[in-house]
UniProtKB/TrEMBL annotation:
Classification via PANTHER family: DNA POLYMERASE III SUBUNIT DELTA, REPLICATION FACTOR C / DNA POLYMERASE III GAMMA-TAU SUBUNIT
One Pfam family in the UniProt entry: DNA_pol3_delta2
Species for this entry: Ligilactobacillus acidipiscis
EC number of this enzyme: 2.7.7.7
A Gene Ontology molecular function term of the record: 3'-5' exonuclease activity
Identification of the protein by name: DNA polymerase III delta prime subunit
Keywords assigned: Nucleotidyltransferase, Transferase
Length: 328
């Protein structure tokens, strides 16, 4: 991710702060996956250490920038969860590092990923530094779930919220990596993380799932009960994990939304542009009200996944409800 392109206002803001020597001792960077939290923290670290800093920012080529990019700089310390949480021992290590002078200079930078995963003891252990910072130290706490961070931690940091990159930015980034326009639009609606989108888009199972999904939904739209059989035969075998099951239901929700939009206004912009040419024939005898009811049915069924209802049961009952919505 080019963080300057993805977050131009924040990079300009931090560039000014560094030039004016007004950087605070602790920041909480909050935003969804793909918003560039880690990239921004590393970019700021480069601002502080770069050997050839210019008005445009760090050079990204000197030895200092290179070591930061490769996570090998001794004065840029990164911590991330081990297992499901950040442990107290990791925070003790950070605190011991806080107390030391920089290996190669006075400045030190600490980056704590998924800060919401700090155990209670770890979070409490971090408070002392945040209350009484020592030396030229700047800490960046990164989180996608701000509501899980202790209020006492939040109150001792400067909070900055990062928005997900614009859809058009993600689409162009994916197209630059050889992904088709249709796929790039779909993937950019599925995730705001460009790296994750590229990974999904190059997964053969995902491509197979898209084909099977449209076959199943097409059968639903023509009120063909073969759609009920396709659940077990075609869809369920391709979603053998909770993550994939959630992804499938999200795709179904996006497709139902596309069809609802088409039923109300065919000139809308759609997510499944690869199937758009078929929307007119598939929706010929389906009303806007029916398409809206179907969209609502999908959203209600999606919530059942968190109640440990099996994906096959969810999809089979959804198939019957969709047939009823579209054709009653």
């Amino acid at each position: 991710m080019n963080i300057v392109e993805a977050q131009p206002q924040l990079t300009a803001h931090f560039g000014d702060l560094v030039r004016q020597n007004r950087l605070a001792h602790a920041y909480l960077l909050a935003g969804p996956a793909g918003s560039g939290k880690k990239e921004l923290a590393l970019w700021i670290a480069k601002l502080l250490f770069c050997e050839h800093l210019s008005a445009d920012g760090p050079c990204d080529h000197c030895s200092e920038c290179t070591r930061i990019s490769e996570h090998e700089h001794p004065d840029v310390v990164e911590v991330s969860p081990t297992g499901l949480s950040i442990k107290i021992d990791q925070i003790r290590y950070l605190k011991s590092e806080f107390a030391k002078s920089g290996v190669e200079g006075a400045q030190k930078v600490f980056i704590i990923e998924d800060a919401e995963k700090m155990s209670t003891s770890a979070a409490n252990g971090l408070l002392k530094f945040l209350e009484e910072p020592s030396g030229t130290v700047t800490a960046f706490l990164l989180t996608s779930e701000q509501n899980k961070i202790l209020p006492t931690i939040i109150s001792r940091c400067q909070l900055l919220e990062l928005n997900a990159p614009a859809l058009s930015y993600l689409v162009e980034k994916l197209k630059a990596k050889g992904i088709s326009q249709d796929q790039a639009i779909l993937l950019s609606n599925l995730t705001k993380d460009a790296d994750q989108a590229e990974k999904i888009g190059t997964d053969e199972d995902f491509q197979k799932l898209l084909t099977k999904l449209w076959d199943w939904y097409s059968a639903v739209l023509r009120n063909d009960l073969i759609s009920f059989v396709k659940v077990q035969a075609d869809l369920v075998p391709l979603v053998d994990s909770r993550e994939k099951q959630d992804e499938l239901l999200f795709l179904i929700a996006l497709l139902a939304r596309d069809l609802m939009l088409f039923a109300n206004d065919p000139s809308q912009k759609f997510v499944f542009t690869m199937f758009e040419k078929d929307f007119s024939s598939k929706m010929a005898n389906i009303s806007a009200v029916a398409a809206t009811d179907a969209c609502e049915a999908v959203l209600k069924k999606w919530r059942l996944l968190s109640s440990n209802v099996s994906i096959q049961n969810i999809l089979e009952s959804l198939t019957l409800e969709l047939c009823d919505c579209y054709h009653r």
